[in-house]
Design a protein that fits this description.
The chain is mostly helical. It contains three helices and no strands.
Length: about 90
């Protein structure tokens, strides 16, 4: 454990961020999984599920939980799959 006050504070801040990031990542995975399931099943709720997943991906990249290019790549792949499912 650190002896310096500033380092103690930094450790507290890092722990808060870590817990928050875990929650955001978990929610993100849930939304993407719901969208993928909707696409696979051919539900009518594809657009809603994909929109919610996109929103979470964008928010995660804005908050720097996820790299912006990774969020863009995941969004692109999700949209590609959704468009393929709706065309067929």
């Amino acid at each position: 454990m650190a002896n310096i006050e500033s380092q103690k504070k930094r450790n507290r801040q890092n722990e808060k961020r870590r817990v928050r990031n875990v929650a955001v990542r978990s929610e993100l995975k849930t939304r993407v999984k719901q969208a993928r399931t909707a696409i696979a099943n051919g539900d009518e709720t594809i657009t809603d599920a994909v929109t919610r997943a996109q929103k979470k991906l964008g928010k995660a990249s804005t908050k720097r939980v996820l790299h912006k290019n990774a969020a863009a790549r995941r969004t692109s792949r999700l949209m590609k799959a959704a468009n393929r499912a709706q065309q067929s």
